[in-house]
Please model this.
Amino acid sequence: MSKQNFIIYWQPNIGKTYMYGSNINYLTKDHVIFENNFFPAGSCIHSWTSLGNYQDQRSARQLPLLEKGCQYDIKLDATTSPQKTLYIQLKFYDRYESLLDVVTIKDKQGSFVYPNDAYYYELSLINGGLKEIIFHNLVITDDKLMLENQIFEDNGLFISNILNETSESHRLQIVFAEPVHGNVAVIPKQIIDKFFDVIQVTSSKLFAHFYMSNQYEKKILATIAKLQEDYEISSVYFIGYGPISSAAALYYSSKIVHGEAYITSDCGELRISRDMLYTDGYQKFEREKIQPNNMPVHSYYYVPFLDPSLEFVQPSLDLSSRLYEYINCASN
Model:
């Protein structure tokens, strides 16, 4: 379980929220506005627990299970007014509900070790004198996984170095990770190791902002331009393997000279939700997901029919095994 990256949202009816005098607006799953002008410092604003007991608490587990003895990084994506008035606190308990340890992080990022004797833990947002929070998410990461894939983060966008670099190739491959609900999607090492001269792009934002928010587009195009300047790159393959990642591959291949898109047949096929409508990048996603004319596009994987009753699980599936078909296609 340690080699994963978990995204935690603040949702209604999940966890415990300080309600007295509070005004809470759940705009989307990852955009919550909390206001309270008469809120005592040191109080818990919202908390989650990893102890799931539906019969007693009428709630499922709200936090991921962590591996004992492992170190994790935690990062808060939120803004507060005034600034620096929100703390992260973790409490670890044994199976007898005795408190083992408390870790308080007075910044937006820190690390902790999950105790060997821990049975469950609680994660809380603590008031340090704030009046308002705009909360997006909390991300718990196994930093070893990110270092292993040489992935570096910039405001929720993760772009790797060139992986499996060769000295003779003039082709760069860019793989967009298909978002997975509740996780920062990272393509398994056994798959990425079959690529050469490849960059992996992923995100902790909801729907990965479709990789098309103005901020993401600027960063991605600047990264490609810098690589083209530093290396003799004659062609760029943009690769997706699901509805969002394929649409991103299609979009960016139209922005680059000698760009080619490798996509799956479900490119752009998403059931519209309220969360999508209010997510950065959605309008561009809807506008640009149709195949442009006069541009090299290769559909390397045709998605079989999915029973409508199973569509609700689709956002939680890791579809990266489809990339084996791309590897076969690109090598022919």
